[in-house]
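User: Here's a structure from my thesis project, written as structure tokens. My advisor, Dr. K., wants to see whether a designed sequence matches the one we expressed. Can you design one independently, without my sequence as a hint?
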């Protein structure tokens, strides 16, 4: 029952001020959101690429209520791409976008989101990198997949995300596991009804393995989004059985979570991509991650104590 409470807090200006002013807040936020500006995140990109890691960058900000705000989100990504061009790291630094930031939930949102995300995908391709469309709650997915399919006509490297806890995802995985596709699989973190999603952790884990097997045996490029050591080991074994080389799939984890594991996988020759969020709207982003899955609160606290 914590989810609705945390989500309500994410929308409260009073709670924002209270949390922002708390002495413990800034160190915690900095652990998982390494900066507010493009200048700060560019330094992070250089540091992490130098360690053999790759990144996917997310400009935080999810409370989009007007077309003007959606256009501002588009422009923030275009500014990021302009700076990434100067670094010349190619696909070592790509981007993740939530279509809700591009106006998907507004009136005429499907067309608006497509119109806003297309120039971002085009600009990314022009500097040798790409974009992955993040999955949000189940009501948005048909629109996301349709936009993904449309973008891939001109930019086939455009990726998308699927969520293991949804009943529909095995069918989505079979459709997406085609040559040239890039698919990130995650467990899923939104609060979904029992009519559309597994709610039991063990059932979600089983579904994750089934879906990852589909991706590994397909012709696309699987991206394993998980911090779970058991699922990481299973992913390695499924890749081995499918005859995949180390550069034919990758692991993805959040910035600030199991950082030593990032380095270990990279040192073993795996492609290890770190999902790195930045921006001024850190409060909304941070609280929403907790609201989507309140167990993350314990996970984040535990991570702060262990530092890896």
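Assistant: Designed independently from the structure alone:
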């Amino acid at each position: 029952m914590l989810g609705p409470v945390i989500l309500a807090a994410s929308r409260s200006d009073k709670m924002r001020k209270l949390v922002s002013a708390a002495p413990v807040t800034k160190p915690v936020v900095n652990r998982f959101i390494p900066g507010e500006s493009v200048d700060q995140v560019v330094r992070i990109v250089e540091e992490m690429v130098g360690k053999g890691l790759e990144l996917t960058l997310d400009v935080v900000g999810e409370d989009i209520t007007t077309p003007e705000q959606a256009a501002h989100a588009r422009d923030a990504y275009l500014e990021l791409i302009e700076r990434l061009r100067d670094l010349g790291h190619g696909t070592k630094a790509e981007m993740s976008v939530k279509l809700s930031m591009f106006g998907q939930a507004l009136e005429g949102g499907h067309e608006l989101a497509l119109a806003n995300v297309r120039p971002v995908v085009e600009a990314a391709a022009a500097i040798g990198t790409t974009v992955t469309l993040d999955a949000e709650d189940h009501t948005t997915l048909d629109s996301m997949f349709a936009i993904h399919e449309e973008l891939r006509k001109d930019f086939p490297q455009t990726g998308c995300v699927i969520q293991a806890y949804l009943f529909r995802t095995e069918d989505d995985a079979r459709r997406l596991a085609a040559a040239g596709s890039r698919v990130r699989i995650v467990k899923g973190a939104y609060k979904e009804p029992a009519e559309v999603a597994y709610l039991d952790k063990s059932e979600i884990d089983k579904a994750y393995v089934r879906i990852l097997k589909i991706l590994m045996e397909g012709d696309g490029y699987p991206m394993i989004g998980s911090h779970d050591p058991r699922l990481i080991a299973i992913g390695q074994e499924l890749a081995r059985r499918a005859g995949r080389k180390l550069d034919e799939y990758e692991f993805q984890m959040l910035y600030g979570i199991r950082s030593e594991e990032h380095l270990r996988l990279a040192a073993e020759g795996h492609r290890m991509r770190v999902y790195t969020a930045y921006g001024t709207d850190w409060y909304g982003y941070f609280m929403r991650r907790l609201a989507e899955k309140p167990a993350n609160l314990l996970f984040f606290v535990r991570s702060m104590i262990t530092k890896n």
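When you compare it with your expressed construct, this may help: Residues 46 and 87 are 8 Å apart (CA to CA).
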